[in-house]
Amino acid sequence: KQEVTQIPAALSVPEGENLVLNCSFTDSAIYNLQWFRQDPGKGLTSLLLIQSSQREQTSGRLNASLDKSSGRSTLYIAASQPGDSATYLCAASYGNNRLAFGKGNQVVVIP
Amino acid sequence: DAGVTQSPTHLIKTRGQQVTLRCSPKSGHDTVSWYQQALGQGPQFIFQYYEEEERQRGNFPDRFSGHQFPNYSSELNVNALLLGDSALYLCASSLDRSNYGYTFGSGTRLTVV
Prior knowledge:
The complex is a heterodimer.
Chain A lengths: L3 E4 L2 E5 L4 E7 L6 E7 L5 E8 L4 E4 L2 E6 L4 E6 L8 E8 L5 E3 L3 E6 L1
Parallel strand pairs in A: 2-11
Antiparallel strand pairs in A: 1-3, 3-8, 4-5, 4-9, 6-7, 7-8, 9-10, 9-11
Chain B lengths: L4 E3 L2 E4 L5 E6 L6 E7 L6 E7 L2 E5 L6 E5 L5 E5 L8 E8 L8 E2 L3 E5 L1
Parallel strand pairs in B: 2-11
Antiparallel strand pairs in B: 1-3, 3-8, 4-5, 4-9, 5-6, 7-8, 9-10, 9-11
């Protein structure tokens, strides 16, 4: 079964600190992994997409890594800001036309 | 460049009723997937449509059905609504056979009372 786990479920950090969010997946035969941001009651905004052949992707203050052998991806957010407060979801694609999502990391950045 | 558009944004229905949700994919995308997200949970795959046919289905009962139109837009229908169907319904579009990820809409919040 293709399961995705995100730990911790919730975390709070002071403004300016770096955020590290972890995502684990059970099946290493992954096509790609996508990180999303979700604000309360809203849809999903794609942040980064890492292909299986890549080890990391960067966009501004965001960096995501992918380690297929260990079944892990990490999202780094540098110098966190209150506007970064949201739920971050990772989703694994196995080429079977569906995404397997974790439950998300709910982040609060304290001013 | 219009992204994925979903309507309506909010909906309240009574148990036993039927509901139809609508989705227009991102320009250039030909594949539409539907997900259900309960409060505090990750989205769960309902089904995917491509070339006007249901290509794959998740673990949802037959009360959930869908349709894709020639212009790639899609509808999700839910019959005999249950309280447990209350959730955020998300539509995602993609380009078939590509590996460029999915684009999600803002969702429809369905409340069943």
